[in-house]
């Protein structure tokens, strides 16, 4: 996992620089900068909207006594999508928007669920319940 992350930290910025240079040469420097700013602003607004929706849904499910597991995965995707949109570049912006749009976010949520289940099965991650109602004195 660490090697993959290191590889992504090297490859993604190099690709972003290439796409930004290509965009600057194709549509011009000023339009490229304005487009980056526009995607950042749209992404921030969408992240805020989706994040507030996720919080409301989690509160509603918790009030009904349900565990908001799926909504928590939504929150993780929204957080990562918002952070990725803060980085300048068109590739990361596309990934950020995919994480923020509910229909495409479902694909990433499925991947995250499989990854968490795999980690729990292998003992890499441990689930600990901290439910005060089930504690013994």
From TrEMBL:
Transmembrane regions listed in the UniProt entry: 26-47, 67-88
One GO cellular component, as annotated: membrane
Keyword entries, A-Z: Membrane, Transmembrane, Transmembrane helix
Pfam assignment, any one: FxsA
Protein's name according to its UniProt entry: FxsA cytoplasmic membrane protein
Source organism (scientific name): Bacillus selenitireducens (strain ATCC 700615 / DSM 15326 / MLS10)
